[in-house]
TrEMBL record:
Gene for this chain: rlmN
Entry's EC annotation: 2.1.1.192
Source organism of this protein record: Clostridium formicaceticum
CDD domains, per the entry: Radical_SAM
Protein name from the UniProt record: Probable dual-specificity RNA methyltransferase RlmN
Matches recorded under InterPro entries: Aldolase_TIM, Methyltransferase_A, RlmN_N, RNA_MTrfase_RlmN, rRNA_lsu_MTrfase_RlmN/Cfr, rSAM, rSAM_sf
First-level EC class: transferase
Positions annotated as active site in the UniProt record: E72, C313
Swiss-Prot/TrEMBL cofactor(s): [4Fe-4S] cluster
Length: 329
């Protein structure tokens, strides 16, 4: 716009403080404000619904976008601070059979500003600073590669939210080319890969992306990521009763990951009516963990949070949309 560089920094800092109107920016001149008002806009994500868990204080948000689409966000409180789980897309095209986020498919990508604004709205509502971010909400972050990379740059900026890369986790279902592209950037974020099966046959039943990228190709991409970044990878494994939770699966997974700089996050699958999957029994989950550890693969069992408020990704949004459809009928 032909303005001096420091003006850009001033505006950037205001927006990252949560300013939504140009007139609120007290150190910006009137002429520039009018120019900005005419040529630009500030993203405004609104809280449509908020639910707070009585069990652990986990807070779930439904955000209303300017085009009336709905996305989700979750804030979880830990000893080390507040972690925000945010969405990167409206819906999801990946089609994982156990996930509510994919029901209805992909509507559109989120802009970097819409991702940032989820965090700003959470901070403003809670009166607390978000110290950790997980890109594990609705959508596949690497399918929205350009905007997610822009988001990472903005959120890490000292003039912005100043959240360190080591406090950011990006979760992917396994887009092999994009994992390699991310590796080449050598951004020291945490990578979480949704694996969910130790062999192609089982994984293809659960995750359509497995038909495009084999486990061998995915493991090669993960090894490449480790060569470039030397940061431990998390493998997410949603345990489904009598699908991928047997001892044979645990042994296969142990052999697949043995010797790799990684650990496995075991997740008792969330109940999604449309998926018809059942959660593995607690003793089965612990047995699965024991087998992995016996093969030298570190494994943790994810603590269930916000169970009383549909806090898993896609659940609340899906219920909200279904309710709206019924109301129209």
């Amino acid at each position: 716009m032909g303005e001096k560089k420091y003006r850009g920094k001033q505006i950037f800092e205001w927006v990252n403080k949560g300013a939504k109107r140009w007139e609120d920016m007290t150190n910006i001149g009137k002429v520039l404000k009018e120019k900005l008002q005419k040529n630009t806009f500030i993203t405004h994500v609104k809280i449509e619904k908020k639910m707070v868990s009585k069990i652990d204080g986990t807070t779930k948000y439904l955000f209303l976008l300017e085009d009336k689409n709905i996305i989700e966000g979750v804030v979880m409180k830990y000893k080390h601070g507040f972690t925000a789980c945010i969405s990167s897309q409206v819906g999801c095209v990946m089609g994982c059979s156990f996930c509510a986020s994919t029901i209805g498919g992909l509507i559109r990508d989120l802009r970097a500003g819409e991702m940032i604004d989820q965090i700003l709205q959470m901070q403003q509502d809670l009166g607390e600073r978000i110290s950790n971010i997980v890109l594990m909400g609705s959508g596949e972050p690497l399918h929205n590669y350009r905007e997610v990379m822009k988001f990472l740059e903005i959120v890490n900026s000292e003039s912005g939210l100043n959240i360190g890369n080591r406090h950011i986790t990006l979760s992917t279902c396994g887009l092999v080319p994009e994992i390699k592209k991310l590796a080449d950037l050598q951004i020291p974020i945490n990578l979480a890969v949704s694996l969910h099966a130790p062999n192609d046959e089982t994984r293809q039943i659960m995750m359509p992306i497995a038909k495009k990228y084999s486990i061998k190709a995915l493991m090669e991409a993960c090894e490449y990521y480790l060569q470039k970044n030397n940061r431990r990878i998390t493998f997410e494994y949603a345990l489904v009763k009598e699908v991928n939770d047997e001892e044979v699966h645990a042994k296969q997974l142990g052999q697949l990951l043995k010797g790799m700089l990684c650990y496995v996050n075991l997740i008792p699958v969330n109940t999604v009516a449309e998926a018809r999957y059942e959660k593995s029994r607690e003793e089965q989950v612990k047995r699965f963990q024991k087998v992995l550890k016996s093969q030298g693969v570190e494994a943790t069992i994810r603590r269930e949070m916000g169970a009383d408020i549909d806090a898993a990704c896609g659940q609340l949004r899906n219920n909200y949309i279904n309710k709206k459809i019924k109301e129209k009928q």
